[in-house]
Specification:
Low-confidence stretches: 7-21
Number of helices: 19
Shape: globular
Helix content: 10-25%
Structural class: alpha/beta
Distance between the termini: 63 Å
Strand content: 25-35%
């Protein structure tokens, strides 16, 4: 049985109604019926999670009752993280889920392209030097053809230099795709899966940074009153928008809604002109159906006679609409979705709830698991539960349910050994440059994995058939949070974990590698191999079996390497020939589901001639980074300091104090004790402060002498440099050369200093293409008997990536400490 088979099964159930446990008030059901009645479709386009205008999305979805989707080119992998240390793909996973929670809040839907957020970009030229424009344009065209919007709204305009290069690029791609989507000669290979489509108009969601939008003469624009109150929902669109934006917690975007009136503007870029309203030319799609008039009359009848006190009495009218819809055999995507939406309304009207639960969160291919299916119908109307089936099980039921008497059945499932694990689909293959390597067209635009295991319950309600898909989920009670549901996750039967990501072959650093091989069922016999190192460059010192914990612990000596830096793949090979070289990574925050992904058990081996003292370092965490772990691997004695440790007599125990990224943005205790840090420096300490943003700063006194923080950054990772190699921190103890600025990742740095006092020196300058050299990436000074460094260089990216030159330079900063 192949993985492709399981994926095709998922496609078969792509349009099964996905609701599994929901009950709504009568007013919300009525509101959803208004959304069912409306057929216009809108696609909002921008570059990142949190770029979207949640206020306009909330208004369009809930006042205009339109189907609204947000297409974010990226998952936000290149940003910063205010709530933890996750960066890169881990941050992208978090921000993906934050976007999905935002859309659940404001009523929209979510799509993505294949673009990797590679970090800040200053203009579209730089952006498309990283992204393959043709492939990204293909993605945008494909999503337009698949979703078939009437209108496209761009968050940004197409004028280069006014904002982030990704932002401008998103608008440029959208405007170009607006016409290409209707051209059968553009990306013709897509037409096996979708049809050509021409939206009527493309608009810019107009704004003016720092002030009210003022339309230019001759421009066609429209104003939406987005601050209004919706009595059916009991809230304003501004409040919905603020709650939606608050879901972007990793970016520190908690929001408070404005009270009272609010306006949002859109400005026509291309397409059908309008007189009074931008949607006036959009025809109701019900008119496309032979019985469209009859359907609209039936919907109107239910709305006019809607029973808010006894919503079950609306069932007859909804079933009549379903009969009319089911008689239409059109495969149009909008109609298919309307059929699904109507099934949901019918289930909401009866208050039906169903769940597919298991009493554990983690399983593995090859395991037999026991789950439970439960369904309840609190209404008096009888519902026939015919069956509950999935790819891995079939259960015939044929039982009636009503009157609030639940039906519960045990479900036994044997998971095949070749069943796919829960790897996010965009991470299944190595990157394709700055794009995720997604080759299957059906996955383009898809926001997230489908559930690992699902079942489909077949119901009959008043002779009408409804199918409802249920994901298998772990349900439990938390003493603080009460009921909690998490996705059931499949991991490899054998997990390989390394105690470090980088190992340094330098004097003073520990050159032992500890490998933990965990078994989900029982310990298997096998061998550990290091692919990429010659056999005489490593030695397995010990292999200890721990039967109780089902694991084998290996200790290895890494003896040598034939390159300055290389990647080594650590693999456990069983006696029956299966190979395991993945490590399970878990991410847990309360505002999103638990996340799981699998990394290759790859070890970076760095061989370099570094002088490392192994001194004692105190590390004060900021918003989150992995620098401290890297320093431990280099042989330094690193202690994580708490707020209570930020006092001179405690700091004096350390030769160097390092402050993590954005610490002065998030740590009030640190900001309140800058005087203690400066006294530490004055009496001979060595203080290194990593980057902060200019707002919100909890104190402006970051160093012994004044300086400010700008928004300047250098985004090209191998950009030109100007360096004073004679300056002490570059001259020794490890001599820095131009070669040490090669092979950097993502960027040089961000939020550089400006207006620094004459007591500081700035020995390094970086330059982005077409710009002047920036000198504020690192400032350094003597203060009393000690030394102080502030640096906007992206150490939090360079050091965990094991970039040899960046590691050498940072070691020099540390070695200023006595």
């Amino acid at each position: 049985m192949k993985i492709q088979k399981y994926w095709l099964f998922c496609l078969c159930y792509l349009f099964v109604f996905p609701i599994f446990a929901q009950s709504n008030s009568s007013s919300k059901i009525y509101h959803n019926l208004l959304r069912f009645q409306e057929t216009k479709r809108i696609l909002f386009v921008a570059a990142h999670p949190d770029d979207e205008n949640t206020r306009l999305i909330a208004y369009l979805a809930n006042a205009e009752h339109a189907e609204v989707a947000y297409l974010s080119l990226t998952r936000g992998d290149g940003g910063q993280n205010l709530i933890g240390s996750e960066l890169g793909i881990e941050l992208g996973m978090i921000r993906t889920q934050e976007l999905l929670r935002a859309r659940e809040t404001d009523g929209g839907r979510q799509f993505f392209t294949r673009a990797l957020d590679f970090g800040f970009s200053k203009n579209p030229d730089e952006t498309f030097n990283n992204w393959d424009k043709k492939k990204l344009l293909s993605d945008v065209v494909f999503i337009i053809r698949k979703y078939q919007p009437d209108v496209i709204l761009n968050r940004f305009n197409t004028i280069p230099g006014t904002t982030h290069g990704h932002h401008t690029s998103s608008a440029m791609l959208s405007v170009e795709a607006f016409e290409l989507a209707a051209d059968k000669n553009a990306f013709p290979e897509q037409l096996k899966y979708v049809s050509v489509w021409q939206p009527k108009s493309v608009f810019w969601n107009a704004y003016n940074w720092g002030g009210q939008y003022e339309p230019e003469e001759g421009k066609t624009y429209h104003k939406f009153l987005v601050g209004e109150y919706n009595p059916l929902l009991g809230t304003t669109y501004s409040k919905i928008a603020a709650d939606s934006r608050t879901m972007h917690k990793s970016q520190g975007f908690g929001s408070t809604s404005q009270i009272g009136q609010g306006n949002d503007f859109i400005e026509l870029i291309k397409g059908t002109p309008f007189k009074s309203h931008p949607f006036e030319a959009i025809e109701s799609r019900w008119k496309e159906l032979p019985n469209g008039t009859e359907i609209t009359m039936a919907i109107k009848a239910v709305l006019e006679g809607f029973d808010f006190v006894q919503p079950e009495k609306n069932l007859e009218g909804l079933l009549k609409i379903k009969t009319l819809l089911d008689s239409q055999k059109s495969s149009a995507i909008w109609l298919t979705e309307k059929k699904i939406f109507l099934d949901g309304l019918i289930l909401e009207t009866l208050g039906i709830m169903a769940e597919f639960n298991i009493k554990k969160e983690i399983g593995y291919p090859g395991e037999k698991i026991n789950a439970e299916f439960v369904i309840n119908n609190p209404a008096q109307s009888v519902v026939l539960v015919q069956s509950f089936d999935g790819l891995l099980f079939n259960t015939s039921i044929n039982r009636d349910i009503n009157a609030n008497v639940p039906l519960t059945l045990p479900i036994e499932i044997q998971i095949p050994k070749d069943y796919p694990v829960s790897q996010p689909f965009w991470l299944e293959k190595p990157l394709d440059g700055a794009l995720f390597n997604i080759t299957e067209p059906e996955k383009i635009g898809k926001p997230n994995n489908s559930a690992s295991i699902t079942g489909v319950v077949s119901l009959e309600i008043g002779s009408q058939k409804i199918r409802m898909e249920l994901p298998l989920q772990y349900k439990y009670n938390d003493q603080v949070d009460g009921e909690v549901k998490q996705p059931f996750t499949l991991v490899p039967e054998v997990n390989v974990h390394l105690d470090k990501a980088n190992l340094f072959l330098v004097n003073g650093a520990e050159q032992k590698l500890h490998v933990e091989v965990n078994f989900r069922d029982k310990i298997l016999d096998g061998d550990l191999k290091l692919n990429g190192l010659a056999a005489n460059h490593y030695r397995i010192v010990s292999a200890e079996k721990d039967e109780r914990r089902k694991r084998t612990l290996y200790t290895l000596d890494i003896l040598d390497s034939d390159q300055e830096k290389k990647q080594v793949l650590v693999t456990f090979r069983t006696k029956d020939g299966r190979e395991f070289n993945q490590d399970t990574k878990r991410i847990s925050y309360k505002h999103i589901p638990n996340l799981t992904y699998f990394t290759s058990t790859s070890l970076g081996v760095v061989k370099t001639d570094l002088k490392v003292s192994g001194q004692k370092i105190g590390y004060i965490n900021g918003a989150g980074d992995d620098v401290a772990g890297l320093l431990k691997n280099l042989g330094y004695q690193v202690s994580i300091l708490e707020d209570s440790d930020i006092r001179k007599d405690r700091l004096k125990a350390f030769s160097t104090i390092i402050i993590g990224i954005r610490a002065f943005n998030v740590n009030q205790a640190l900001a309140s004790n800058v005087d203690q840090l400066m006294e530490y420096v004055k009496e001979g300490g060595n203080l290194i402060v990593q980057y902060n943003t200019g707002s919100p700063l909890l104190t402006k006194d970051l160093g012994p002498y004044p300086f400010s923080i700008s928004r300047e950054r250098v985004t090209v990772e191998n950009s030109p440099i100007k360096v004073d190699y004679s300056y002490p921190i570059l001259a020794g103890p490890n001599k820095i050369t131009a070669k040490d600025f090669e092979g950097w990742v993502q960027e040089r740095g961000l939020y550089f200093t400006a207006n620094w006092d004459a007591n500081y020196s700035a020995p390094i300058a970086f330059q982005d293409p077409g710009e002047e050299f920036f000198h504020g990436s690192l400032i350094h000074t003597k203060y009393g008997a000690g030394t102080y460094t502030y640096s906007g260089i992206s150490w939090f990216r360079q050091l965990p990536a094991g970039v040899p030159g960046a590691v050498k330079l940072f070691v020099n900063l540390i070695e200023q400490g006595k």
